[in-house]
């Protein structure tokens, strides 16, 4: 009798194991629509009128809290989205469009957080760029911190309600020719570049912020804007040098009059003065296209800049330039400015 009971217990145990395996096979199965997967490569397979979406088989967790996507081809429109969604997310919607999902979109640099209307969040991404998404483990109870990266640098983060069932890595595409390389086992570690002045940074990378708010890579003026002294200033913690001699910004919102200035200034520059207005500074002003070099009166220099334009500033150092000091040698360096990669003008300092 004991042998019979033991036999039935063994059969029930085997049946239970089989049922668990079947449930896990269904639960941990990746889902994709209007996409083709070839190894770690995802390709859009639609007609550009409909969204294609991929959802990974397993959610992010304490053991695996980060993944990356490298853009191989942007296709016609580069409408590639990277983010997190519930397991049974509707595959005919971009990640971030529906509730309980969040995603960073490469074509416009916006964050979509459960809404079809995105918020300006970071830089646009193109062919060769690496977009990452991960979760932070130090969020408050009931909240989950989701962060995004571009080429190894954190773009920004957002807090969303934590899901008991977890959130799954997702990739969306929406135009012909889009193709990405998927790495679901990527490891997150901040890549540090000493001395680099970059706009895709965080508040700790800025030495001084006056009437300027930092959100991810976005700099936003929050002053009164009523008089000439109501100027906002963001000054990087580290200067340009021979290794990192150039930086850019993109005008995402020109405001009322586009009073935006890009340039270089001494460390103790007045916080209520536009770059270029006072001694020890030089700047290109977007509203009138003038160059200001230590004076409140500018000289005609280049085109005016509007929303969507990209402005850049850099230094061309002499080959024998040294930052070690030592001696009283005086160098002449060439400061240059660029606008939307077409206009370029140089100025000797």
UniProtKB/TrEMBL annotation:
<feature type="domain" description="B30.2/SPRY">
    <location>
        <begin position="1"/>
        <end position="189"/>
    </location>
</feature>
<dbReference type="InterPro" id="IPR050618">
    <property type="entry name" value="Ubq-SigPath_Reg"/>
</dbReference>
<dbReference type="InterPro" id="IPR001870">
    <property type="entry name" value="B30.2/SPRY"/>
</dbReference>
<dbReference type="InterPro" id="IPR043136">
    <property type="entry name" value="B30.2/SPRY_sf"/>
</dbReference>
<dbReference type="Pfam" id="PF00622">
    <property type="entry name" value="SPRY"/>
</dbReference>
<protein>
    <recommendedName>
        <fullName>B30.2/SPRY domain-containing protein</fullName>
    </recommendedName>
</protein>
<dbReference type="InterPro" id="IPR003877">
    <property type="entry name" value="SPRY_dom"/>
</dbReference>
<dbReference type="InterPro" id="IPR013320">
    <property type="entry name" value="ConA-like_dom_sf"/>
</dbReference>
């Amino acid at each position: 009798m004991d042998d019979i009971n033991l036999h039935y217990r063994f059969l029930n145990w085997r049946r239970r194991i089989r049922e668990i395996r079947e449930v896990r096979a269904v639960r941990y199965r990746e889902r994709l629509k209007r996409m083709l997967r070839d190894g770690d490569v995802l390709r859009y397979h639609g007609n550009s009128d409909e969204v294609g979406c991929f959802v990974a088989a397993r959610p992010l967790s304490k053991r695996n809290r980060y993944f990356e996507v490298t853009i191989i081809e942007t296709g016609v429109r580069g409408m590639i989205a990277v983010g997190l969604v519930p397991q049974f997310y509707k595959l005919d919607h971009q990640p971030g469009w529906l509730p309980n999902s969040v995603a960073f979109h490469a074509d416009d640099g916006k964050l979509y957080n459960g809404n079809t209307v995105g918020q300006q969040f970071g830089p646009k991404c193109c062919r060769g760029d690496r977009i990452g998404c991960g979760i932070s483990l130090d969020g408050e109870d009931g909240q989950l911190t989701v962060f995004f990266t571009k080429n190894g640098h954190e773009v920004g983060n957002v807090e969303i309600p934590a899901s008991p069932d977890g959130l799954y890595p997702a990739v969306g595409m929406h135009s012909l020719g889009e193709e990405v390389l998927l790495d679901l086992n990527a490891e997150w570690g901040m890549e540090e570049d000493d001395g680099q002045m970059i706009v895709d940074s965080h508040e700790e990378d800025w030495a001084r912020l006056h009437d300027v708010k930092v959100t991810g890579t976005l700099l936003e003026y929050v002053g009164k804007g009523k008089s000439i002294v109501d100027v906002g200033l963001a000054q990087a913690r580290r200067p340009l040098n021979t290794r990192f001699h150039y930086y850019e910004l993109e005008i995402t919102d020109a405001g009322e009059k586009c009073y935006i200035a890009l340039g270089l200034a001494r460390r103790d520059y007045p916080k209520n003065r536009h770059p270029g207005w006072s001694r020890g500074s030089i700047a290109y002003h977007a509203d009138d296209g003038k160059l200001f070099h230590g004076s409140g009166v500018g000289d005609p220099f280049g085109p005016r800049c509007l929303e969507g334009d990209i402005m850049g500033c850099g230094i061309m150092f002499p080959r024998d330039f040294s930052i070690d000091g030592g001696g009283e040698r005086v160098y002449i360096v060439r400061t240059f400015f660029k606008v939307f990669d077409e206009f370029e003008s140089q100025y000797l300092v």
